[in-house]
Predict the 3D structure of the following.
Amino acid sequence: MRCPFCGNDETQVKDSRSTEDNAAIRRRRSCSGCGARFTTFERVQIRELIVAKKSGRKVAFEREKLERSIKLALRKRPIDEDRIELLINGIVRQLESLGESEVKTEQIGRLIMKGLENLDSVAYVRYASVYKDFREAKDFEKFVEQIADPIE
């Protein structure tokens, strides 16, 4: 594993532990070149996923993009990192278990919306504003009314 600080190829694993949901292994590493310490995660990848964009373009699924969008919606919210990681892992597992190597952006968006709805209502509305392409304040109002009154 290359050191992210100095680029040295010689690093040592100091400690290995399973994550809380046993979906990954967390490794604490130390660089023999500069002495820096850093953490890596090792995850099982069931299959290579391809994301079909609305434009028709197809790109490789990137867990980091999923993580960034979820963390952006949850920015400055009082949600524990472990719960965020569980949400991300759960979404990735659901996508991998669909049985298809190609997933649409809409499927990913729906899974994120469902997960955020159960985790944090503010993050849910934030994500929905981008996912549903809100253009003005009344779009927010309508959406929040639907959440408050789910009968409609």
